[in-house]
Specification:
Blueprint (H helix, E strand, L loop, with lengths): L1 H19 L19 E2 L2 E2 L5 E2 L12 E8 L7 E7 L4 E7 L7 E8 L1 E4 L16 E3 L4 E6 L3 E7 L2 E8 L18 E4 L10 E7 L11 E7 H7 L11 E8 L1 E2 H4 L22 E4 L6 E5 L4 E2 L9 E2 L13 E5 L2 E8 L2 E4 L18 H46 L2 H9 L9 E2 L2 H7 L8 E4 L3 E7 L5 E7 L7 H12 L9 E5 L6 E5 L6 H5 L10 H21 L4 E2 L8 E3 L5 E3 L6 E2 L7 E2 L11 H6 L1 E2 L1 H17 L4 E6 L2 E6 H10 L3 H4 L2 H6 L2 H14 L10 H14 L4 H5 L17 H7 L4
Helix pairs in contact: 5-7, 9-11, 9-16, 11-15, 15-16
Amino acid sequence: MNIISIILLLWRIIILSCCYGAATTSAASAPIAKPNCTTHCGDVAIPYPFGIGPNKDCYLDEWFQIDCRHTNSTTSANYSRQAPFLKSVNLELLSITFEDGGGAQSVQVKNPITFFSREGKETRQPQNLTGSPFIYSQRDNIFIAVGCDLFARMSSDYGPVAVCGSICRNTTDGDSGDCYDSNGCCRGILPTYELTNFSIDEITSNSSTSDAKGDCKYAFLVDKYWFADNLTNFRDVKDMDSVPVVLDWMLNVHDYGERFSVGFRDKPDNLTGNQSTPFCTRNWYNRNTMICDCPPGMEGNPYLLQPCEDIDECEDSNVCGDDVCENFLGGFSCYSKMNGRRCTHSSGYDYRTTTCHIRTKSETEIKTIILGLGSGVGLLLLLIGAWWVHKIVKKKKTIARKKMFFKRNGGLLLEQQLSSGKVNVDKIKLFNSKELEKSTNNFSIDRILGQGGQGTVYKGMLADGRIVAVKKSKMVDKSMLSEFINEVVILSQINHRNVVQIMGCCLETEVPLLVYEFIPNGTLSQYIQEQIEEFPLTWDMRLQIATEIAGALSYLHSSASFPIYHRDIKSANILLDEKYRAKIADFGTSRSISIDQTHLTTCVHGTFGYLDPEYFQSSQFTEKSDVYSFGVVLVELLTGQKPISAVTWSQEEEYRSLATYFITSMQEDRLFDIVDARVLKEGSETEIQVVANLARRCLNLNGRNRPTMREVTSELEAVQMSRKPSISAQQNSDGVDFVEDESVGHWDVESLSEVSASY
């Protein structure tokens, strides 16, 4: 009876909220700074170890010295105010926070905005905090970039920190001021490691594209809660010079452990209500730093090394309800007195609203019990009736909701296609939501097979024992639902052993769910990058996989009912089955076209490193764009390297495109310097050279000069045949010279690196 539990829980929450109201009150007399030291600068409180100079005893060391300056108000040049600055890093301080429970302690400061194209605005970079006790908070900050066709990057000494890209569409989607990548604003998440120094720069930008929202490009790190709560429109930032950012701060155990040794321990265990001494604990993620705090039920500034003061919870008259409250050091108790006896109910934790009654056999008590039982039974019957009505209403709403989703997701159109006989019912099935929820254990995180830009894939087991992969999309475009249904129908007609087969879909959920056959042995990228060491890729396996994928793409381009462009060919979308046969997966961005069409004009989709530069510039996707992406996969199989990687030139670290690196190496006759060691050992120079020349042709900047997938398949099959022991193979085993193909064109290494920059 969930409704009963809910009502009782709500009643308990109401009581607890009343009782806790005064439990958080603190004694106003608790000191925050050392004696004879200034406690405030303007409206900002300055607790120790921070302190206002020049008295050095007022702060722990020079890193925590506060400079209280007179500055002009941002709203009026005639109004002067006092503002604190962290003197060591010259940043204006907005607030200092001590979190309870040993959490990170932080300060909020003003952080400059980096402008890329704004007349009259100075381009400034964030402050370098290296060597200080301050780090940029990964938990509380977010990277924001604003501008049309902009790719912005945060870089540190360790490499790229965060990258995001944004575009502008000619719609009114961005008028609300919400930040998302199609209205000229994007977000980047910070890494988990400690970040003390970084710079912000512009990776690439289409300067010929005018920004319909203001032609201004800039990026900044910002307090994500301030960004969400204080801005009605993200474009208002362009009129500012700085935004709030959160810095976590911690003390080094080696430098300050001895000074704060009172109560210092790795774990604050064995704390009792009689203990008022502050204690210090090591950070769980950085054992060389520490944070100090007061014991539970106490308050004060632990860094002053003074006893923490007790919180008198009994000052709130409602903390114990009708019972008597008794405060003690570090906690409190509630008790009632009946017939001269005392019953204690709590020690300052979750039992403060519990009452203790000692029953007697008096007539009054018996009548009270009978009245209580009668009221309880009546209330129970009322609640059961309410629960029953609630269940019926909820069931009807669920059914209506499923019907609404089914209709909105194109279910009627799919049913029409099924009933028309155009689709084999045995190959495409309409699953219900309960069936897929049960098969995936309600989409448990333990069942996740992988996550990508289109959605999350879960492993599931159907009622008949079949193992399937269930893809749950992140979002749905209502204007594309009819095309989505057509794609499901077309994909259901694909019958190729090297293409992952679709088994059905579910349309009665908020976003459509797709059900595919389960492929057990992971992705090709895992084997190329040797993440699965127990089964290394041999040269024969690499040739076999390349031939199978080329054959499947040739089938999609020319042998299917309608030509199908995959649009996201990459090693992560190539799966290996139980016999290590390759299968193309993830048709989330694929499109089918009419036979008389030569290209497809769309918004740019794909994965950087595999993206056709010609498609990136023209937004016109052709079958030769899939050929380019396959060429990158072929180079991965030859070299065993990632499509995008970081490389250090002198003292700077930049992105390197594998395609650019491969072409440059071939032009400089350094092919065998970059080929994978296993390939060199198992393959002949002739075979490697033939495959390398084929990959080079696939990577031609001019799509017209690239081979078709049918031609690629034929050449790879010929290489496979040459490995079989035969006289003709032996005769042709000596030296195949490189042929300088003039149609390859001149490669602009710098521009291609920008196009292929990874997120």
